[in-house]
Amino acid sequence: MIGFAGLACVVAINFIVYSYTKQKFDIYFKSVIMFKRVYDCATNICKKMPEGFKPDDQTKTAIKKLSKLSRLIFYVESRSRSALSSDISALLMEYIQGVFLIDVSFFNYIMKVIDNDRTSVMLVLDYVGDIDAEISIASYRKSLTKWCRPEFIEHGIMVKGVAHPLIEDPVTNDWELTDRAMITGSNASGKSTFMKCIAMNVILAQTINTCIAEEMYLEPLEVVTCMALRDDVTTGESYYLREAKCIKRMLDRAQSDSVLFVIDEILKGTNTTERIAASKAILEYIGNTKAYAIVATHDNELTSNNSYRQFYFGSSIENDNIIFDYRIHEGINTRSNAIALLAFLGYPASIVEKAKVNINENRRNSRANRA
Question: Predicted confidence band at 136 (pLDDT cuts at 50, 70, 90)?
Answer without folding.
Answer: very high
